[in-house]
Amino acid sequence: MKKLFYLLCSGLVMMTSCTSCEGGNEDPPAPVTPLRHLLVQDKPFLMLGAQLRTDFFLALDGRTPEELDPYFELAAGMNLMVVQVPVSWRDVEPKKDQYTGSLVEKLIELSERHGLKLELLWFGSYMCGYSVEGYIPDYVVNATATYPELKPSADFNGWLGKHYYLKPNTPALVDREKKAIAHMMTVIDNYDKAGGGKHTVIGIQVENEPDMLATRHNAAHGYSPEQLWPDLIDMLDQLGQVVKNSSYDCYTRVNLTTTYDNYLRKSSSIVATKGIDYVGLDPYENTISGIEAKLNGLRWIDGNYAHIAENGGEYANNDILMLKAVTMGCGYEIFEVVTTPHEYLVDWTLRGVYNPDFTPKPHTQQIVDAFKIFKGAWVDIAEAPVKDIVGFNISQNDGAQTLGEKKSASNASISWNTVSRGVAFAVECSGYITAASTKADNMTFGNVTVTGAEKGHYGMDRKWVAEGAVTLTDNRLTMEPGAVYRIKIQN
């Protein structure tokens, strides 16, 4: 049986690709029993995070791997649990049969230094449906007879060199890419064992938005979706199986766009393979109803863990969208922490939660505060059934400035009030309720007897760290912004 894991997000939606990703009109697959928990080392894990496009910082901005530390520090300051970082085929195999693990090891080192879990985004044959010279070894790019293109005349020069369309699933291409992935997995396993088994790398994304080859670039290369999908899915399966068969235990996933009607059915077909554990979506939209609909579609795919794999960092209501996903038992990832200032991607500086010079945007703190309360309560959120996770101020796309709401978990009723556009949650656990808000709001607990309360947070070792007792008056808690509380209860 497949192990399911939470994931955090991935891959740049390019200027020529997914700037607006409206959902298709497809009905979700027939309902099955959704799997609630994502497991890392056999324990429920909360995956909320954002992407660092270190490939751009290295290739376009001239940074060295040793100069990436400030980017990881910025990501950690966002209160992320997981950071998503690309590794390209060329990074692992710069020349034919000459392999290196130096960049992979550096990315793990930086993640560990800043207390982050790491998901590696494998940028191999396909990046947003393109084959990109800067990600693929020269011997593949140049040997077109061995590694054929769909249409040689369709290539063009873009960022990181030639963009073209490798024919999917050709035996030589798959064989060489599998060898590179196998080397990367060996590097990860050896580094982890040498470092005491911290299990920093929790998952591998296989390619990036590969569906765009079959659904977006058809006019350029001349092939129909029906001609490409079977080979594309089989290739993803084979590459994923390399990860699954390695000695290092982690999940695999694929991220898809949502601009074609049957994206849910294609997601289901990919999840049904042996090599890919689950599929998430890159909707790039900021309505609660849109995010909810897409997550619901993914939730009903047998064996899938539903998650938003990428959503734009420019959305001021990411805190609300993230909380909505959490209350559905789903994952949510933001693209991206900060964007390169390079002229090639100047139109994409809006995607970063931070400006290219690391200064915050008007909505940055809102997102940082939301990540903080989730991270402080992550164990309880990850382990609780969906019916016992309640969220507040997630009914309006922009959130209400002043709002009072009352919601119920299995036993407790929880009332919450804000006058400053807070977002909040409460999780009913066995013998206590974990609660937090981003603002100085109030929360009252009914249908239960409160026997005590304290502030605290969970560390990455899953242990609760108490920070001092607090007092409730008539079961009413006056909350500090960003503080996480454990309310002891009796039914």
Please provide a brief summary of the model:
The chain is an alpha/beta fold and 491 residues long. Helix content is 28%, strand content 24%.
Tally of separate helices: 14
Unreliable residue runs: 1-25
Mean pLDDT: 92
Q: What gross morphology would you assign? A: elongated
- Largest sheet: number of strands, sense, barrel closure: 8 strands, parallel
The helicity comes to: 25-40%
Question: Major sheet: order of its strands?
Answer: 11-10-9-5-4-3-13-12
Through-space gap between termini = 37 Å
DSSP strand count: 23
Beta-strand content estimate? 15-25%
Structural class by sheet pairing and helices: alpha/beta
Radius of gyration: 22 Å
Task: Give an overview of the whole structure.
By secondary structure, the chain is of the alpha/beta class. 28% of the residues lie in helices and 24% in strands. The chain is built from 14 helices and 23 strands. The strands form five sheets. The chain has an eight-stranded parallel β-sheet with strand order 11-10-9-5-4-3-13-12. The chain has a six-stranded antiparallel β-sheet with strand order 14-17-18-23-20-21. A hairpin with a 2-residue loop joins strand 1 and strand 2 (43-44). Helix 12 (318-327) runs parallel beside helix 13 (364-376). Residues 1-25 have low confidence and may be disordered.
